[in-house]
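thread: overnight batch results

M.L. [08:02]
morning all. the overnight job finished for the chain we discussed friday. pasting input first so we're all looking at the same thing
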Amino acid sequence: MPDDNPEHCGISDAADKGEDKPSFRLPPFLLVTAVSAVLCFYGLGTRTLWEDEGETAVLAQRALSLGIPKALSGNNLVYQSVSNSYDKTYRWIFHPWGQFYVTAASLAVFGQTAFAARFPFALCGVLTVALLYVFIWRHWRSSVIAFLGAMLLAASVAFIIHCRQCRYYGLSSLTALIVVAVFIEVVNKPSWRWWIGLAMALAAQFYADFGTLMVMLPGLLLSLWPMKVGKKELIAAAKSFALAFLLIIPGLVLHWEKLTVGGEGGHDFFVALLKYIHYFDVWSIPLLFAVPAGGVFIWRLFRSRKGYVSEQKRIVIVCCFVILSAAVGMAKVAPVPFMRYIVPQMSLAKLLLALILVECYNLLCSKYLPLWSAKPLFAVTATVLAFTNIFSLPVQYLVDAYKEPESRLHSQPGLFARINFVGLMYELTHDFICCNRVALNAVDDLAEAGETVLIDYGDLPLMFYRPDLSVYSLNTLSELHNPPDLAISYQTIYYRNYYIENYIRDVQTRYKCNYLCVKISVPEELCGNIPEPDQHDFATPSKRFPFQIYLRSNHKDRINKLPLTIKALETRWYRPR
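M.L. [08:03]
and the structure it wrote out:
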């Protein structure tokens, strides 16, 4: 890790120019922020919302109209087979409400569109990159290190596709970095402004994503010991946590059932921990670099003079403890190990990776290579790290060796080495057809306001785009007591299509009504815009699967208005909305 002297941080501006206090350079900051903005915002509204995004968007609509996010509005119930999702009055308690209110504000300003639903979270992603740059520069006074760390985050495919979601990931990433940044200020100079600021940051993290706060807190508290902070700093930190507790009491009361009951298990702790290590290794900070660098840092830390740990080393300690705490904590409490749960710690991992790279550069320049050869090697290594995962260790093989079923880990087999940034560029510049889009286009053609639609998957995006309909899914089928006007089934969703077919057959017999069936094919994917890197489709899948639509026969005139050929009908329903 970098030495205590902030001028010795590799290729720092101060060292190059001989300045004691280098000034903040605006061009590199603007460049990395602009890159992040393009990657986060370009084509943001082109993809159709998928199920989890639909959940956030629908609850935001209700927060906008009702004042609070309610699971039930009219006949439409937000439910995804997860217990403790809402209370007896249908107030949503499964997630904190911060994401719903920022989404509601965006919908109020920009309208009821996918772009508007995703806008605040993409903005949080850009602000996270910008804040990381400022945070690094503030403590290392090096534009090179700041640019490198921020660019590694800005170019991270996993970070980008999560921030392009109408979901709390971008908001949680920003608040998590703010918590760490302000925590560092408290333990360095514990003025009342900073400890109050830390309390506010902790509360903001709770209302954005209390799961992330829960797994970060042990890391923050444990990091106080190796940092060797004084009594004054400990008192300031204690005041911050006490004030934060007072600020989150309303949220604790509201979400108490969810917080105390927790999620449903279904995985082995050791396997989940290996999975999170795999995520960090492939998408955040390669273990090939992190493990030896960590050993060197620990050795240097023990060699440092007793009773004092430099400001820069304190930052490294906090980052390491928070990352480890998040991996262990999520492996314990998260129902299924997903990448999305540790995205908030990615900025800290990229900071560490930037420091490791600069330290390697220092070592090469001082002992092994001349400057003219070290700089190109540094540039090539940084570029490869930013756009590929070939420096990572295949930790996934350890999971496979443990014989954990692949379906339990929600990952797809494939080549270990990938250049997913190329796929991201294709995604940003090409259209993407998913079954949710096809279903929405079909519903626009075949369903009128006030009618009832039954769909076996994609009910939440449909509620967002067509709030004028009564939408039911297999999860809420028991609440449907009349024949639906329209029913849709995807035949690859395990055995779900048989439920729809059998239900329609039963309805026809019970209510003496008939249905017309239209069959087309749709791209062979289910979740569409799911942000898990191992599952995310950057391009429309070439394979297709059957897609069935049942329309009440008394609405036959609507089908007569559609194209006569299946190919023309597919083209019509494949189009962007």
